[in-house]
Amino acid sequence: MSAVTPVDLPVSDATRRQLARGERTAERSATRRTKKRLTSRGATIAALIIAVLWTIPTFGLFVSSVRPAALVNTTGWWTIFQNPGFTLDNYTSVLAAGNSQLNLAGSFINSIAITLPATVFPLVIASLAAYGFAWMDFRGKNWMFIGVFALQIVPLQMALVPLLSLFSRGLKIGNVELFSGLDAGGYSQVWIAHTIFALPLAIFLLHNFISEIPRELIEAARVDGAGHGQIFFRIVLPLTLPAIASFAIFQFLWVWNDLLVALVFADGDVAPMTKLLAEITGSRGQDWNLLTAGAFISILVPLIVFFSLQRFFVRGLLAGSTKG
Hints:
Layout: H1 13-38, H2 41-65, H3 69-74, H4 89-96, H5 104-135, H6 141-150, H7 156-169, E1 171-173, E2 176-179, H8 188-210, H9 215-223, H10 228-256, H11 260-265, H12 273-280, H13 288-298, H14 300-308, H15 310-318
Antiparallel strand pairs: 1-2
């Protein structure tokens, strides 16, 4: 019995267009079905209610920032229509606030000088460590990773005094000086502190993402002669970019809005905006109208960072949620 060879019949352009339209229709139908399964009217209404409730305090803060101090201290922001009054004096006072050594413009530069390195340093170290824990075999790897994970439960407040002592006195074992004290009044103490506090969570999150990379991809690179450095920079790093961007947003916001570490390690000419805003509110909080104006000035940079990296942030949150 002879074998029958299949013959490709000619297909007209009209037929191809019809097939393409059918495929697009099927894709749209599948998208609608998936969207219908994942969303509901009740969930949408609940999300809108939560968004409104979350926005009300921020709106009240903004209204208070453009009202005169006398109205802020005597009436609530919700009475703005009964007691109208708008002014930009709060913003003017905040921009001029501070002492002869530091003002809002100087503290703004300090916040950027603190936040950018304190975001980059832990990400660089954590990404290398996460790759090592995920794809390198060495003795005690699992126990070391458990130790890194356990560091997340150590409260930040417990490490402030030991770190302050280490930075000021240095570290010696016998007559051997392993670490000399850092000069006060610089950024290095704040960078090191924020890097130390961010590393456990950063390593844990990036390790979970890097370990999900298909082993076949790594093995293929090794067969082609690629070393760990080439694999990390050419394969792992591009694939991990969404997760890195996601953690970068969180770390940037944490450091930018930090006050506790700034109070301990950042003093004088290197004080960030959060410390200056805490000082201009007054000893008893009587000038909190200035705080409302300063708060809206301080959120400009975080908003720019978030919206610039929003697409990476969403991809990082959704990474690993689906298979195939």
